Inverse folding.
């Protein structure tokens, strides 16, 4: 039971987020309307992605300090699941943009032609591509120890690229994304207590789901590694 309580909690939180996200009322924001419910998916997935990427880079640093191959496996699997959540977050964000920025009734519609140059989208795509390159780099090196060391160094570089590409540069440029040019964002004026009652549990739920999937992938990888050493 000690090993399964957090998995039960994960399921309960995600069910609560889905049901609460559908049934609980949301603020009446003209730009977003009912699409604001996507907050429980798009933003929460990106929060979970950041947590998994942070865990991954911690294990990469631990590998460089100890040269323990297990830490490289942990770092790889946390990065892999984090990348999956990042892709899902990017997809849900693109769908959200299509329903808000491309809506003729939306004030942002007049600027729709600039979406292809949207800093947030470009920065997010850069971050995802940097982590894609992490796995391409791993597959290009055959020596296990060298692969682990080089990948760990690159993982630190990839993590450092997250912040300027997602958080810093997009905030310095004009953007249609919430939080820029008067668009509503995640603050106390735009999101009331009812939404926060769902938002924070959703962040925890998506993060636990990512950890759950990662733990399964790590177990499979360790079994494969053991079989390869014994074979």
């Amino acid at each position: 039971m000690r090993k399964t309580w957090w998995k039960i909690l994960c399921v309960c939180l995600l069910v609560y987020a889905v049901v609460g996200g559908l049934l609980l009322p949301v603020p009446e924001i003209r730009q977003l309307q009912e699409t604001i419910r996507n907050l429980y998916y798009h933003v929460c997935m990106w929060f979970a992605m950041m947590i998994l990427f942070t865990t991954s880079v911690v294990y990469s640093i631990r590998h460089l300090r100890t040269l323990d191959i297990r830490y490289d496996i942990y770092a790889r699997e946390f990065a892999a699941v984090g990348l999956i959540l990042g892709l899902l977050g990017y997809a849900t964000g693109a769908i959200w943009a299509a329903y808000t920025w491309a809506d003729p009734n939306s004030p942002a519609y007049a600027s729709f032609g600039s979406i292809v140059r949207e800093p947030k989208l470009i920065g997010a795509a850069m971050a995802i591509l940097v982590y894609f390159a992490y796995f391409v780099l791993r597959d290009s090196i055959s020596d296990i120890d060298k692969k682990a060391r080089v990948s760990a160094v690159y993982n630190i570089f990839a993590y450092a690229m997250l912040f300027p590409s997602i958080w810093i540069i997009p905030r310095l440029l004009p953007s249609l994304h919430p939080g820029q040019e008067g668009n509503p964002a995640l603050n106390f004026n735009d999101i009331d207590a009812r939404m926060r009652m769902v938002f924070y549990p959703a962040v925890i739920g998506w993060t636990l789901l990512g950890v759950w999937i990662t733990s399964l992938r790590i177990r499979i990888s360790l079994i494969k590694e053991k079989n390869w050493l014994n074979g």
